[in-house]
Amino acid sequence: MLLDGEAIAQKIYNSLKKDIKRLPRSPRLSALVVGDPVPTTRIFLERKKQACEAVGIEFRIKKIKGFSSRTALLARLRDAIQSSRADGIIIQLPLPSPFQKNVHAFLRLIPEDKDADCLSERWLGKMQSGRMGVVIRGKPVALVPPVAGALAAFLKELNIDPKGKRALIIGWGELVGKPCTAWLLHKGATVMVAQRTESKLSELLAQAEIIVTGTGIRGLVFKNALRPDAVIIDAGVSAPEGKILGDINVSEVAPHVRAITPTPGGVGPVTVAVLLENVVKLARARLK
Asked: What region holds the Tetrahydrofolate dehydrogenase/cyclohydrolase NAD(P)-binding domain (predicted)?
């Protein structure tokens, strides 16, 4: 079974349009883009722009260039964040390679009540302790990192409660591995984490009922190693020759599992929809 991310995203957008009409102004989302974006980043920014236009969110891209050091970049980002009037702010990942190891130093610059991506260390701590949100003007606002929110939406579509399930996360990145691990642990799943170089990956795959991949490497999941009741959420992205691909050869693997997300049309659309849902929640708490 192929999971239709476009259909799930559209359900979210239909609800957001109604919420936005009740607000005194349009919600605002600002994306801070550091350096020259890679091809996949440009694609994702365009998708966010189109989705914002479709539901009625003001979307602005702020390009951060002309820095020569980590200290200079921190200062440029801090200035951009402090001067922003947006309800939600994101720093578009990945950062240029010299700054990727210091990513949390940059992410934590975003105030908690504007952090629409929920990717900073404080959010991982919140999720692991069961505190899934912020308080704005005395109002609790429930938020979730967008890829973790997409995972939740797909499991809900399948009527699967992750509590007690064995889950395997392949990849330990900021966008997929870390937030999805924290969310699954919060929901009571037994979580195994494998790096993409894991030598015993087949053994772990054979145990997993829920599999989330986020490596950007094709062909890591083998059809013969999978449980027939497994659900695979493929959040990996690569773009050879400008074409967006996931981690998994869906046509090869799909007949051997209960459900799987295709790429494109799977995790990506729902991730963008959950991001916009976070922005609307942040705006509503400020404006109502």
From this structure: 148-285
Please tell me the pTM assigned to this model: 0.95
> What does the alpha-carbon distance between residue 273 and residue 32 come to, in Å, rounded to a whole number?
19
Q: Is residue 199 part of a domain?
A: yes
Those residues with Cβ within 8 angstroms of residue 104's Cβ, 6 or more apart along the chain or in another chain: 120, 121
Paired sense of beta strands 166-170 and 139-142, if any: unpaired
123 is in an annotated binding site: no
Query: Which amino acid, one-letter code, is at 272?
Result: V
Judge whether residue 224 has pLDDT over 90.
Answer: no
User: In angstroms, rounded to a whole number, what is the distance separating the alpha carbons of residues 29 and 85?
Assistant: 9
- How many C-beta atoms lie closer than 10 Å to residue 238's C-beta? 15
Identify the CA nearest to 162 among candidates 127, 208, 129, 114.
208
The verdict on residue 138 lying in a domain is no
Q: Using the predicted structure, report yes or no on whether residue 210 has a pLDDT greater than 80.
A: yes
**pLDDT of 200 over the 80 cut:** yes
Task: Please check whether residues 155 and 263 belong to one and the same domain.
Answer: yes
Cα gap 280→268, rounded to integer Å:
19
Q: Where in the sequence is the domain holding 23, given as residue range(s)?
A: 16-112
The reply to whether 97 and 155 lie within a common domain is no
Of the candidates 87, 112, 137, which is a domain's last residue? 112
Q: For 107-132, what is the mean pLDDT?
A: 88
Q: Does 173 count as an annotated binding residue?
A: yes
The angle at the Cα of 80, spanning 99 to 173, to the nearest 5 degrees, equals 35
Rounded Cα gap, residues 233 and 210, in angstroms: 8
| 20 CB neighbour count, 10 Å cutoff | 19
SS3 159: coil
pLDDT tens for 154-185 read 999 999 999 999 999 999 999 999 999 999 99
237 known member of a binding site: yes
Number of domains in the chain: 2
CATH of the domain at 108: 3.40.50.10860
Whether 288 maps to a domain, the answer reads no
